[in-house]
Amino acid sequence: MEAKTKDLMVFVETNEDGTAKNVGLELLTPGREVADKQGGALSAVIIGNNVQAAVDAVNAHGADQIIVVEGEEYAHYTTDAYRKALIAVVEKYAPTSMMIGATNNGRDLAPRVSCFLKTGLTADCTGVDIDEATGKVAWTRPTFGGNLMATILCPDSFPQMGTVRPGVFKKGEEVAPHAEIIKEDIHVDPSEIRTTVIEVIKEEGGESVDLEGADVIVSGGRGVGGPEGFETIKLLADAMGGVVGSSRAAVDAGWISHAHQVGQTGKTVAPKIYVACGISGAIQHVAGMSGSDTIIAINKDADAPIFDIADYGVVGNLFDVIPPLAAEFNK
Asked: What is the Cα–Cα distance from 184 to 234, expressed in whole angstroms?
């Protein structure tokens, strides 16, 4: 496909209540920077049913143009309906680049759209910029199990597409709404939608962990010693008004569910405060939390790599350090 504009397009995923998912609003931040460097507008695409709340949120976060596709067939995410709608929008508006959040739905949708458009796709990015030499989008993502960072360019096909992990960027400050709002009448016949949402089942135990939206995360690693050790982690998390996170080692050991995992194969987070307890600081974990405003490490190994990136560090046994620390916060 040929890019007819210099615009950057962000797909803003919605919740079933019509509100915007955080990742879409987060992507408007790098989207603004890249769009300005490309010399084009920042465009947002919203697909769903009764999505006025999402439109208002996007408008308050700096989009120049908001393209809205509404219909009952978009009330629940289905690959067929969303793929057809998004392809129709991209073909009509022909942006030079496009960002999609690397959520479960985004990871399903993006490759299907890119394949139809015969363009490249860089998945699970943690950085986005413009390459000065070529003027093309430079997508940065971890590779070799998180041990290296690769920067990828797709200069010969358009739009240049990438999925970006939630939590990598932060939502910008709200601004005066100024977007041009365009409603596209795009509908998909029910016969073309090959899947049907019959029932939505909550995760076992009803557990829902909002790591990406948390301001404070207290995470435990191999140093907690077992599932009972996370009771101590939760003690500090509750005292600080935060949520419990974990390293991959703790999840693999079966001590806590994957919903809590931070890192290369878990969630990417950027809270105001991140407390790493009994976590050595392997690069795979650091890749998921290094964007935190303040990092506090508690580890009995003074040589643990986590201290290299921590703003504050406590060398000591977490079971000795956390209870009095939590007591002070509770005061």
From this structure: 47
- 73/197 Cα distance (integer angstroms): 11
> pTM score > 0.85 for this model?
no
CA angle at 283 for the pair 161 and 23, rounded to the nearest 5°: 35
C-alpha–C-alpha distance, residues 244 and 249, integer Å:
15
Orientation of helix 229-239 relative to helix 318-330, angle to 10°: 30
How is residue 293 written in tokens?
Answer: 């405003």
Pairing of strands 273-277, 216-220: parallel
Express each pLDDT in 147-195 by its tens digit.
678 999 998 899 999 999 888 888 899 999 999 999 999 999 999 999 9
193-213: pLDDT as tens digits? 999 888 877 665 545 788 988
CA 256 to chain centre: 22
Report all structural domains of the chain as residue ranges with CATH numbers, in order of start.
Answer: 8-192 (3.40.50.620), 204-330 (3.40.50.1220)
Peptide bond into 305 cis (omega under 30): no
